[in-house]
Write a structure and sequence with these properties.
Layout lengths: L11 E6 L6 H10 L8 E4 L4 H12 L1 H9 L3 H17 L5 H9 L6 E6 L2 H13 L13 E7 L16 E4 L2 H10 L8 E4 L14 H11 L7 E6 L7 H14 L3 E8 L5 H9 L3 E6 L2 H15 L3 E4 L19 E4 L5 H12 L6 H13 L5 H6 L5 E3 L4 H13 L2 H6 L10 H9 L3
Parallel strand pairs: 1-2, 1-3, 3-4, 4-5, 5-6, 7-8, 7-10, 8-9, 10-11, 11-12
Helix pairs in contact: 2-3, 4-6, 9-15, 13-15
Length: about 450
């Protein structure tokens, strides 16, 4: 644990902010919280912003709206959308002021506040508040406190809304995103410092597995073993792709009864039909919760308790679990459903250019071989030791056949023997960078 003099000072308060638009922002906030030394003054904060939540849900679930939303994520339309959206957010900044004041007022002796935002919505609003409005601490006269804002980009996607001119620091997962945000920010007078740090993953899931548990993972990938194959199915906050998940699970279990599925989800009207269906299946276990925070914390517990080897997921924030190695608790083989939205394509591109998933030609060859019933080539099998995930097809039935074929051909077993570069979570490096602001 690095020494963090500025962050651990008793007169410093860290406010980790996240949006309720999906679970990704909360996962990152929890990962960051887990990297702080004991005794640090830190709290979690989320606004009741129905605009952000509504936009996220409708653009994730409605195909027509999704296409429109994607059109506004590139080119001139992106700049128009970013300008309008951030202007609306800033006008509504005063709405969160009472919440911010209440959080700070509950702490005694606070002189410095560091806001760490894992969503650009709150980041734009806080950037306005920290510059213009005095903040109070309990028992002190009204005065302007020292306030800093750090923005943590939660996809490797250089969407312009992530550029918060008045931020003190913007942290991104790659040089690609940094370069694009710097290019976009040239016409702003205020320019934040932008730094690259490895994605902040849960330190809890980064612990090394005991040898016996790693051997158990290997058996799950061995086509000759009879060990149960444990697959995680985390339901996204927007409850996208549930029909795909259900049919994939049915088809995979029919092909190979070894497959069992572990679903973590929030209880809602959107997830109820899917969860009811999966609860009835003998090959699945459902963990569902009322609140997002419960989903995130219990997901980590489920991964550890069951020694999960695979995960089917959207290529959103869970994409970066590919940075874990198989020998770590969170080091599962990632099976990516079809991307939805620009950020998910960008996340897959991050993995491909870092060699963590097959490149376009190799991926298409794998698909063709699985459909034709061919055998894996020696060159592809050799490359598999550097992969941490693969992309599925759009059809759940074909995806099930693909997954079964990969197992039978020994691809998953090779992936479990990962020989690529081991990357650490960016949590500790991120906090060290934030501490340097002091």
């Amino acid at each position: 644990m690095p020494e963090l003099k500025y962050l651990t000072s008793p007169d410093t308060l860290i406010v980790l902010t996240f949006a309720k638009a999906g679970l990704g922002h909360l996962r990152v906030a929890f990962a960051l919280m887990g990297g702080l030394p004991r005794g640090t003054n830190a709290v979690l904060f989320s606004s009741r912003d129905e605009l952000t939540v509504g936009l996220h849900r409708i653009s994730s679930t409605n195909p027509v709206i999704r296409e429109v939303a994607e059109a506004f994520q590139r080119g001139i339309l992106e700049d128009v959308f970013t300008t309008v959206y951030t202007r609306v957010l800033r006008r509504r900044a005063k709405d969160i002021l009472p919440q911010v004041e209440a959080i700070i007022g509950a702490q005694k002796g606070i002189k410095k506040v560091i806001f760490v935002s894992t969503h650009f919505g709150l980041a734009h609003q806080i950037s306005l508040l920290k510059e213009r409005l005095p903040l109070r601490s309990s028992g002190s006269p009204e005065r302007r406190m020292e306030a800093r804002l750090v923005v943590v980009v939660t996809d490797d996607s250089p969407q312009h809304a992530w550029y918060v001119p008045q931020a003190d620091l913007v942290i991104v997962p790659s040089e690609v995103t940094k370069r694009e945000l710097l290019r976009y920010g040239k016409h702003f007078e205020a320019r934040p410092r932008i730094e690259v740090v490895d994605y902040p993953l849960s330190l809890e899931l980064g612990h090394e597995l005991k040898r016996s548990k790693f051997k158990y993972k290997l058996k799950q990938a061995d086509p000759k073993s009879r060990t149960k194959v444990k697959v995680s199915l985390p339901v996204s906050g927007a409850a996208v792709g549930l029909g795909f998940y259900a049919q994939l699970a049915v088809s995979l279990h029919e092909l190979e009864p070894r497959f069992g599925f572990y679903i973590t989800s929030r209880d809602s009207a959107y997830t109820k039909p899917f969860l009811d269906q999966m609860r009835k299946a003998e090959y699945s276990k459902v963990y569902s919760y009322k609140y997002d925070r419960e989903v995130v914390t219990n997901y980590n517990k489920m991964i550890q308790k069951n020694t999960i080897a695979y995960e089917v997921t959207k290529p959103s924030e869970q994409t970066f679990k590919a940075l874990y190695s198989p020998r770590q608790r969170g080091g599962v083989i990632m099976l990516f459903a079809s991307p939805v939205g620009r950020q998910e394509y960008d996340n897959l591109w991050y993995l491909a250019r870092n060699g963590l998933i097959p490149g376009k030609e190799d991926q298409e060859m794998l698909w063709r071989l699985s459909v034709s019933g061919g055998h894996i080539t020696k060159s592809l099998l050799k490359k598999a030791r550097n992969w941490r995930g693969v992309r599925l097809l759009s059809s759940p039935q074909k995806s099930a056949q693909f997954v079964y074929w990969l197992m039978q051909e020994g691809v998953f077993l090779e992936m479990m023997k990962f020989s690529g570069e081991k990357r650490s979570s960016g949590v500790l490096a991120l906090w060290k960078l934030v501490d340097s602001l002091g």
